[in-house]
Amino acid sequence: MNPTEIKKFYDEKGYVAINGFLSKDQVEELTSQTDRFIKEVIPAIPAEEVYYENKLDQSTLKQIQHMHDFDPWFNNLANSKEVMGLAELLLGGKAVLKNTQYFNKIPYQGKETPAHQDGYYFMIMPQVALTMWLSLGDADAENGAVCYIPGSHKKGMREHGKTALLGFSQGVTDWSDEDSEAEVQMKAGAGDILVHHSLTIHRANSNNSNRDRRAIGFIFYGSDVVIDEKAHAEYKKKLDTDLSKQGKI
To answer: pLDDT (tens digit, 9 = 90+) per residue, 229-246?
Structure first.
């Protein structure tokens, strides 16, 4: 798809997939830099930025937050013309980088991702924001490919409630058979990128394979977005406290 087609599809469906966003060599470099970050940078960053299924077992690493704040390589990647340019195309104007994340569903242990809208966590007005999901390897039905509900970004915010899932503390509470029938599973290969609107409902199954399901995520807001800083700070404080008690951070 050309840029016009990409934008049109995103506006209509609330998500878009771009195959081959990174070349094979670029994927290898990103994978190498991610492994370096895990080995060398994680020990020096705040514990609340790193989520484990079991904090005592480093092989259960699930999520890393704000990688661009702690490492220049990832800061350069997030602000590159390719990544930033795509964000600005889809947001329709200046984009502001808010997060660079690492995600993994580890083999046989990676749990499901509950249906949710990222905008519920963002606490922003207006909901002019998006999330990118850049795959480091194959993502499919067996290891937890992302599923979207097309057009759900046009229907406002759904009710959310607390979940027990690490990294996704809130989920849609009124999931229906209609939602199940409407959802589309997005398989991805290494170097493919998925992008979705902050109001697009999405979820993923657990990892029932012997393969990791690794990805780098980016979150961008529109430049005119206003954040409810007080509510966001209170939510983050409570979340960190809960995760610490559970031995996840």
So the answer is: 877 777 777 767 766 766
Which backbone phi and psi does 145 adopt, to 5 degrees? Answer: -65, 150
Amino acid at the residue 210: N
Structure tokens at 12: 């209509």
What are the sequence ranges of the domains in the chain? 3-245
- 3-state secondary structure labels for all residues of the chain: CCHHHHHHHHHHHCEEEECCCCCHHHHHHHHHHHHHHHHHHHHHCCHHHEEECCCCCHHHEEEECCHHHHCHHHHHHHCCHHHHHHHHHHHCCCEEEEEEEEEEECCCCCCCEEEECHHHHHCEECCCEEEEEEECCCECCCCCCEEECCCHHHCCCCCEEEEEECCEEEEECCCCHHHHHHCEEECECCCCEEEEECCCCEEECCCCCCCCEEEEEEEEEECCCEECHHHHHHHHHHHHHHHHHCCCC
pLDDT tens for 144-160 read 999 999 999 999 999 99
Which fold is adopted by the domain 3-245?
Jelly Rolls (2.60.120)
Burial label, 99 (beta-carbon count in 10 A; 0-12, 13-18, 19+):
middle
